[in-house]
Amino acid sequence: MKAGNDVEAAVRDCKQQRAAMVAGDAVALGELLDEDFTLTHMTGYEQSKA
Predict the structure, then answer these.
(1) Is 27 helix (H, G, I), strand (E, B) or coil?
(2) 24: left (phi over 0), alpha (psi -120 to 50) or beta
């Protein structure tokens, strides 16, 4: 896989995650995010997938 394809895939996945978060789609987020996923808010607060 070329680097350009990696970047495109990362951008696509980020857009899908953001859309699912805005829509409150827990099912889509569950499919997109790894079990060990942790979101770090701009305040430093860490939130796990659970």
Answers:
(1) helix
(2) left
Give the pLDDT of residue 21: 93
Contact 28, 16 (CB under 8 A): yes
**H or E element at residue 38:** strand 38-40
CB-CB contact of 39 with 21 (8 Å):
no
φ/ψ of residue 25, rounded to 5:
-90, 90
pLDDT tens digits, 10-32: 999 999 999 999 999 999 999 99
CB 49 within 8 A of CB 38: yes
The pLDDT confidence band at residue 3, using thresholds 50, 70 and 90, is low
